[in-house]
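Quick one, tokens below. Sequence please?
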């Protein structure tokens, strides 16, 4: 039997625990396959997609900063990838078409949004920090929950404007104003790469917030970003991106292998032990 090959493309990738996740499941479900890190430059995307087309690779995940950049090289995007124009899972279908899917929305719903039990969709205000590939998935998942008071802020204003073209009801906050604007928010969601292991971080202090603020960081490695630590110190309820990471992986795995893998305690223990 030939070993199937999977991987994740992005840059940087040193923080990624996707190989651990998928290789754990391959072993558990006795699938002869391997999943590895494929750190690439943007001009290498086309070559990687070719490898999917000629079956050298059976599937790839896509992460920062290529979730949108891969789209022009695909034959088809489906479902929530279409709604968000953000792709994190790629494979070849039976007709030989390279297909892009989005499992981030599913990950966000199961890993975070469905846990917000007492949230009032009507009155809650959410600020999304960042306007990269995953931000549109966040907006889409919030909308599915009925939350519509959504603000966005991004270092590069133009990218926030681009997201607004797709979701015209969201409001843009200037990056330099986030510290003041945060005071009126119920939920803050960090979708930037700020806080990622070995990367740069937020300079702001974010000391004054609503007492019932919820801070969600899409980052899962490190387990506690500096932002999570700072907010926790101020008594804010915080979540990291670990559950989202595991759920998006679960759905990618199911798409590729027709097996819905379990998020059991063994897996959670192994993943958590690898976090810094
Ligand atoms: P992806 O498409 O995979 O989400 P991305 O588009 O590079 O990746 O998104 C990364 C996000 O982190 C962007 O919102 C980016 O802001 P810019 O659009 O201004 O690049 C944000 N980001 C990365 N480094 C940052 C920094 N040093 N300060 C502020 N925001 C940063």
């Amino acid at each position: 039997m030939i070993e199937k090959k999977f991987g994740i493309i992005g840059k940087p990738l040193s923080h990624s625990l996707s190989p651990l996740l998928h290789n754990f499941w391959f072993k558990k479900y006795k699938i002869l396959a391997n999943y590895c890190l494929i750190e690439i430059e943007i001009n290498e995307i086309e070559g990687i997609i070719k490898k999917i087309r000629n079956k050298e690779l059976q599937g790839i995940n896509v992460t920062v900063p290529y979730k949108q950049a891969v789209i022009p090289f695909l034959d088809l995007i489906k479902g929530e990838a279409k709604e968000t124009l953000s792709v994190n899972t790629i494979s070849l279908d039976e007709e030989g078409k390279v297909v892009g899917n989005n499992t981030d929305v599913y990950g966000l719903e199961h890993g975070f949004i469905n846990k917000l039990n007492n949230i009032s969709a009507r009155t809650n205000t959410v600020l999304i920090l960042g306007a990269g590939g995953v931000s549109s998935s966040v907006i889409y998942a919030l909308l599915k929950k009925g939350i519509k008071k959504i603000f966005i802020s991004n270092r590069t204003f133009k990218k926030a404007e681009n997201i607004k073209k797709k979701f015209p009801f969201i409001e843009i906050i200037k990056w330099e104003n986030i510290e003041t604007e945060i005071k009126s928010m119920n939920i803050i969601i960090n979708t930037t790469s700020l806080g990622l292991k070995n990367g740069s971080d937020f300079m702001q202090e974010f000391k004054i917030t609503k007492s019932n603020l919820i801070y969600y960081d899409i980052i899962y490695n490190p387990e506690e970003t500096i932002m999570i630590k700072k907010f926790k110190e101020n008594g804010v309820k915080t979540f990291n991106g670990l559950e989202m990471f595991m759920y998006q992986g679960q759905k990618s795995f199911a798409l590729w292998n027709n097996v819905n893998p379990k998020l059991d305690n063994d897996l959670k223990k192994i993943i958590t032990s690898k976090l810094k």
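The two ends are 37 Å apart (CA to CA). The CA atoms of residues 114 and 145 lie 8 Å apart.
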